[in-house]
Amino acid sequence: MQSKHTQKIVLSDQQRKDLELIVRRRKSSQSLVLRAKIILAGAEGKSLLGTAKKLKCTRETVTRWRKHWVERPDDQSTLEKLKEAQRPGTPPKFTAEQICQIIALSCDKPEDHGYPFSHWSESLLAMVAVDKKIVSSISQRQVGRFLKSGRHSSRQGQRLG
Length: 161
Fold this sequence. Notes:
The chain is an all-alpha fold and about 160 residues long. About 50% of the residues lie in helices and about 0% in strands.
């Protein structure tokens, strides 16, 4: 029985198959499975409160995801409709290109750039990145995070530190 507090959800056959696959697949994240179950319950006409109790989540969670589903364009894929919306926040301070340039710099020898050192240190890399105008400012700790993040494949034998 459909409650007046139930967001009306109509699924295409493909959307239903996609949602059921997400629920069954072992590698689906639990948050994605919960969202898929919320949408499937809505398509079956289950109430918000009944769905929340059955899925052990809040009524607000059920309401939010049903609302997202209905408001998002039908030409979006099922996965796109289940994704979290972009959250506001501070944009990244460094671009992917800047990070790549700093990592590439770490693969060269300091002597190749006119510095009288045999190995890079994180502080030297930070200083050179600013000198070469790759970035306007950067801390040695941030350089270290870039190098340790696994965003590069090798340092060509260069020792840091």
